[in-house]
Amino acid sequence: MTPQARPVLGLDIGGSHVTAALVDPGAREVRRDSRTVLHVAHDSPASLLTDGWARVALLACANEVGRVAGVGVAMPSPFEYARGVARHRHKFAALYGVNVRESLRDAWAGTPLADTSPVFGNDADLFALGEAWAGAARGRTRVLGVTLGTGLGSGFVVAGRVVTSGEGVPPEGELWNTPYAGALAEDSVSTRALVDAYTRSGGPQLNPADLAARARQGDVGARQVWQQFGEHLAAVLTPVVQDFKPDVVVVGGNLTQAWTLFSAPLKLLGVPCEASRLLDEAALLGAAALVLDQHG
C-alpha cells in the first residue's frame, strides 16, 4: 500500500471525551467502523489524559493492516501547536507545560503507532479545514468556519490551508475576543449568551435543545431569542466577511441543530452561509487533511 493510500488517524480532543477514527484520504471520509470514543474528564491528572488519548488512538486502528500515514490531533487552545506543548490553565490544567507529542510517542512505543509523530491543529481551525477538504466548503478557495457552542470558535482557510494572519484575518484567526456591544463577541454568541437571554426575558433556564423545542412549539419568547442570536452572529461576522471576503461561511457546533431558527439574518452577509455537513466529523477530517498537507 502506498503512503498516499494509507489511512490517516484523526483525534478530536474534547473537554469530556476524545474521539479517534481512521480517515480514507481517497474518499475523504471517516471510516465509521474505526470510530472510537473514550470519556476522559478534562480535570484528570496529566498521565491519565495522555494515556487515554494514546489508548483510544490504538483502539481506532486496531483492525488496520499496516501502518497509518500519520496522526493528526484537533486540540483546543491555548496550545503550542508546532511544538506540541500544552498551555491550558482551565480545561486540561494538569497538562500545562507538558509536551503532549512526546507523551503520546512514549505511550505508543512498541505498538503499531511506534515512531509516529502526531501533528496538532486548533480544533476550530481543523473544523474549517475539514469542511473545506470534504464538506460544505469543498472546492471553495476562501473559507470561514465558525463553531457555536460553549464558546465561539473560528477558522480561516485559503487554498486548502489554515491561515492565522494575512488579509482580513483577525489576530490568530480568533473571533471570540472581538469587541462587540461593549463586551466580547463570545458574550453575545455562545450557549451561555443564548440561555441568559431567555432567562432575562422571564423564561426558565433551559439548555439549547429544550429552548429550540420551545421555539418550534410556538413559544414567542424562545423564537425571539433565537432570532436575536442570529442577528448578533450576523453583526459579529459582517466586518470579518467584508475584510476576509470568504467564498462561503460554514457554521458548525452544537447550536447548528437549531439552524433554521437563527440562520435567516445571515443572509444579509451577502455570501453563502451553510450549516456543517460533517458535524462532529469535521475536525477529524481536518486533522487528516493537515497530516496529508504536511507530509506532502
Automatic annotation (TrEMBL):
Q: Does the keyword Transport apply?
A: no
Gene3D superfamilies referenced in this protein's UniProt entry, alphabetically: 3.30.420.40
| UniProt-listed InterPro entries | ATPase_NBD, ROK
Enumerate the transmembrane spans.
Answer: none
Q: Name one Pfam family in it.
A: ROK
Reading the lineage from the top rank, the first entry is Bacteria
The GO molecular function terms of this record are: kinase activity
Keyword S-adenosyl-L-methionine annotated: no
Keyword line: Kinase, Transferase
Q: Which residues form the signal peptide?
A: none
Q: What family does the entry list?
A: Belongs to the ROK (NagC/XylR) family.
In Swiss-Prot or TrEMBL terms, this protein is called Transcriptional regulator/sugar kinase
Q: Report the source organism.
A: Deinococcus peraridilitoris (strain DSM 19664 / LMG 22246 / CIP 109416 / KR-200)
